[in-house]
Specification:
CATH architecture: Alpha-Beta Complex
Radius of gyration: 14 Å
Largest sheet: 5 strands, mixed
Strand order of the largest sheet: 1-2-3-4-5
Number of domains: 1
Strand content: 35-45%
Structural class: alpha+beta
Order of helices and strands: HHEEEHEE
Distance between the termini: 25 Å
Number of helices: 3
Number of strands: 5
C-alpha cells in the first residue's frame, strides 16, 4: 500500500518492484527477487520463469503495472505458485488508480503460517 500511495499509478513494473524491495527490506522480511525456476513438462525441462519475489520462502509475489488485471494475469500467478511449490501467492497490480491485489492458494499444498 505504501508504494502505491507514494508513487501512484503510471510507472513501469520494474520501478514498483524496486520500491517494494526497499519496503520488504525495511520490514525485515527475507526475500529473493526474480528467482529463476525451471519449468518441466512431463519430466522434461522446457524453460525457466522468474517470479518477481519469493517472500520468506513461502509466498510468491507477482507484480503488474496494468490499467486492470485480466484473467491471464491471475492464471500466470497461479502457475507460479504451483511451479515454485509454495503454499500461497499474491498478485499485485500497481497500474490501476486503486491498488489491486489477489491472494492465490496452491491447492496442492496446505498453508501453515508457522512452517513453510
Amino acid at each position: 500500500m505504501k508504494v502505491h500511495n507514494t508513487l501512484g499509478s503510471g510507472f513501469q513494473e520494474v520501478i514498483y518492484q524496486r520500491c517494494l524491495a526497499i519496503e520488504l527490506e525495511r520490514a525485515g522480511l527475507t526475500f529473493a527477487r526474480e528467482q529463476s525456476h525451471v519449468i518441466y513438462y512431463e519430466g522434461i525441462e522446457v524453460g525457466t520463469r522468474r517470479a518477481d519475489f519469493i517472500v520468506d520462502d513461502r509466498v510468491v509475489v507477482e507484480l503488474k503495472a496494468m490499467i486492470d488485471l485480466a484473467d491471464v494475469h491471475l492464471a500466470q500467478a497461479k502457475n507460479y505458485v504451483v511451479a515454485y511449490n509454495k503454499p500461497i501467492g499474491l498478485l499485485i497490480n500497481f497500474g490501476a488508480k486503486s491498488l489491486q491485489f489477489k491472494k492465490i492458494y496452491n491447492t496442492n499444498k496446505k498453508f501453515n503460517p508457522t512452517n513453510p
